[in-house]
Amino acid sequence: MSSPRLIFFFLTFPSCRFILSALSASQRNVVNCALCHRSLPVFEQFPLVDGTLFLSPSRHDEIEYDVPCHLQGRLMHLYGICVDCLEGVHKIVCIKCKSRWDGSWHQLGTMYTYDILAASPCCQARLNCKHCGKPVVDVRVGMQYFSEYSNVQQCPHCGNLDYHFVKPFSSYKVLEAY
Fold first, then answer.
1. Are 7 and 1 in contact, with CB atoms under 8 Å apart?
2. Tens-place pLDDT, residues 63-113
3. Taking every annotated instance into account, which residue ranges of this chain make up the domain Headcase middle (predicted)?
4. Disulfide-capable partner of 80 in 31, 62, 118, 121 (CB 3.0 to 4.6 Å)?
5. Which secondary-structure segment (H or E) carries 41?
């Protein structure tokens, strides 16, 4: 288990107002890590967090609360990932291919406007249709931009429109901390 740290990072000013508004509307001052469920307090006036925040177009039922927010007219959901999961203190693996998720390249203390877990698919299962299970995109080709993995895509096989690449948080497993 990692030792407690007092390392917090500031978010940019426009993000501060957006985050504080979303949390206030949901009557929350804490988010839980999407992976290990560690409590991440978000302090008043300056949304400080020991990790990073991100927006997902899908509501994840594994998290007991919902922090809905609107970004450019689109309903999104605010989630966080703690620094221990991002930096590899907790070993995070894909339940499909068993490869390790690496969050170390994400900037601490920022807010991504896309689902960071969807943004770097490790295997073909992460790019398959949620309806028919066939590939929407070939993992060897991928998408041009990280944020595209959080957009609605049409399955070329069944025609279903969905956020196919935004998988449940439970599609990752948190192994013991180092």
1. no
2. 777 788 888 888 999 999 999 999 999 999 999 999 999 999 998 888 899
3. 17-169
4. 31
5. strand 39-41
